[in-house]
Amino acid sequence: MPTDERRPRRVTVVPGGPVLVEGPVELCTPDGEVVKSDRFLVAVCACRRSKRFPFCDTSHRKRVRTQDD
């Protein structure tokens, strides 16, 4: 096994935004689909607003905050 595959992957949770994962990655969606990305950094949607779910399309930025938030 190459040493690159054994090293820990960094995962960064962005408050109010996506989860950033060092790639490449395979993501298993809730419906069982496996989605792959070979990018060096992958933004995974955490708000479920993305039209590209499970990948982030920055839809989380469109939310308007109210006084109750």
UniProtKB/TrEMBL annotation:
Instruction: Write out the entry's keywords from A to Z.
Output: 2Fe-2S, Iron, Iron-sulfur, Metal-binding
Record-linked SMART domains: ZnF_CDGSH (SM00704)
InterPro entries, per the entry: FeS-contain_CDGSH-typ, MitoNEET_CISD
Tell me where in this chain the Iron-binding zinc finger CDGSH type domain is found.
22-66
Molecular function terms, GO-annotated? 2 iron, 2 sulfur cluster binding; metal ion binding
Question: In which domain of life is the source organism classified?
Answer: Bacteria
Q: Which GO terms describe its cellular component?
A: cytoplasm
**Keyword match Iron-sulfur:** yes
Any Pfam family the entry gives: zf-CDGSH
- The molecule here is called Fe-S protein
- Organism from which the protein derives: Amycolatopsis vastitatis
